[in-house]
Amino acid sequence: PVDYWTVRADFGDYFADWRGPDNNGRIFNYARAEDIAAKIKGRQGVVKDVRIESKSEPVPLAYDLTELQRDANRRYGFSAQKTLSLLQDLYEQHKLVTYPRTDSRYITSDIVPTLASRLKSISVAPYAELVKPLLQKPLQPTKRFVDNSKVADHHAVIPTEQPLRLTSLKEDERKIYDLIVRRFIAVLYPPYRYDQTTIITAVNGENFYARGKVVKDKGWRAVTSKPAEKDDPDSEALPEQTLTMQKKGDIKQVKSYKINKSKTKPPARYNEATLLTAMESPGKFIEDEELRESMKGSGLGTPATRAEIIEKLLNTSYIERQGKELVPTSKGMQLIKLVAPALKTPELTAQWEQRLSDIARGKGSKTEFMADIRKNAIELVKSVVADNAVYKADNITRTKCPVCGKYLLLVNGKRGKMLVCQDRACGHRQPEKQDEFGYKSSKHASRVNQRLIDQYSDQGSVGQNLGDLLKAALQKEKPTEKD
Asked: What is the Cα–Cα distance from 389 to 338, expressed in whole angstroms?
């Protein structure tokens, strides 16, 4: 982190932030910040420019699976896998939404005649008042919603015509359904329109910028608003404020000023929302322009498998959740050092995508492609066998496994810290604190379990009569009068 300073001036009816010739407000030299403050102290300024721009924010696109997973993670902290499971239930059990595992954010023109009936089916509280203005006139969806060319196998996730009974949904199902319904309604609303005003005030040769907005039409934002994104700590965006009308040439007195100290921050760690975005569009991590182009429209995994990939990384302890953030473990960082370079960049996937596209266009050979895949696999295996690098677990505890005697590893589980046997064939797991979940795991308990297995397991041949075995077992366990 590096210290930097900003200078803010108060002109009475608005405040404004200093900007340099390059429109950058960060000052990395405190003496320079003090110089600017000294230049404006007690001075008068003049309104150098007043810019009013009419701006319009188009309606958001409908949900595909990945965007819904991102949104649910940002708003509710749901994992990608949880969102997929809830969505699957809304589709299969409740019949309230369309096919979930889609990568399209558009619908086809043949769906348009059904839009009115879909709106009627959701016209209950709390959506009735939002739907009402849409049903009062003919629906005219735009190309941001209806585009046949952008739908392959399945269209965007939207509500069905099934009548809605919110009481039949569990709380988390309602949250996901609410996102889908509000997005569906919002897509049919007009754009969000506002006037943005920027005032530039010059004081003794230094420029200060103020920004505000006046909403003209809430449009789709009356239905749903985008989740509050975390501001980029190093962003140069001006803060919004309510501005009174100013005229070019107005004289403004500097009432006070303030020098604020801040620190630069590194890029934020991935959460599931931002990781899904990176998996969906990994082309930016590829330097080769042609390869980057071949990744457009494809990514790492598919909408249906990305949640599973993230869960697998968590379950195998390559990454772990810390709050909403996904953080690599020591095991995961060692893997990246040990693995073949080709397997840890999107370039290999891009090369395969490029060759598959060539085959689809009749420019490539399937036989050659498969032969190269086999050759590549053999080379990778040979390089791994020849490599003398060794993985070293640094989360080994002094606690021995009660089943096989090997030392246990300390990992983060869904219910807290867990002790896991390093031998996967053994598979023993227990909480770090033995009585945390109301049971104890020990060598004695394992021996008792084994005796019970030996006692009650059928030691006879498979050909024995199952009915006779069940009768014998029931007779053995028949309660006495005392019981």
From this structure: 7
Phi, psi of 317 (to 5 degrees): 60, 30
Residue 382: φ, ψ to 5°: -60, -40
Query: The tokens of 62 are what?
Result: 């409908």
Q: Where are the beta strands (DSSP E) in 174-239?
A: 192-203, 206-217
Bridge pairing between strands 416-421 and 3-10: unpaired
Active site residue 192: no
Distance CA 314, CA 327 (A): 10
CA pair distance 99, 87, nearest whole angstrom: 9
Handedness of CA 413, 417, 421, 426 (dihedral sign): negative
**By the 8 A CB rule, do 381 and 387 touch?**
no
Predicted local distance difference test score (pLDDT) of residue 334: 92
**Residues 199-202: contacts with CB under 8 Å, at least 24 apart:** 199/14, 199/16, 199/47, 199/49, 199/50, 199/51, 199/243, 199/246, 200/47, 200/48, 200/49, 200/50, 200/51, 201/9, 201/11, 201/16, 201/45, 201/46, 201/47, 201/48, 201/252, 202/45, 202/46, 202/48
Residues 6+ apart with CB under 8 A from 84: 65, 69, 100, 101, 304, 307
The full DSSP string for 254-277 is: --EEEEEEEE--PPPPPBHHHHHH
Report the distance separating Cα 299 and Cα 306, nearest Å: 10
Residue 155: predicted pLDDT: 96
Q: Which helix (H) or strand (E) holds 411?
A: strand 407-413
The DSSP 8-state label assigned to residue 229 in this structure reads P
CA nearest 246: which of 45, 41, 18, 56?
Answer: 45
DSSP code for 159 = B
What is the three-class DSSP state of 216? strand
Taking residues 216-241, what's their average pLDDT?
Answer: 70
3-state secondary structure of 377: helix
301-315: per-residue pLDDT in tens?
888 899 999 999 998
User: What's the pLDDT tens digit per position in 273-324?
Assistant: 999 999 988 888 888 777 777 777 678 888 889 999 999 999 888 999 988 8
Distance CA 304, CA 169 (A): 23
DSSP label at residue 460: S
Question: What does DSSP assign to residue 190?
Answer: P
Catalytic-labelled residue, pool 4, 14, 99, 270:
99
* Identity at 153, one-letter amino acid code: D
Q: What is the pLDDT of residue 440?
A: 47
Q: What is the pTM of this model?
A: 0.75
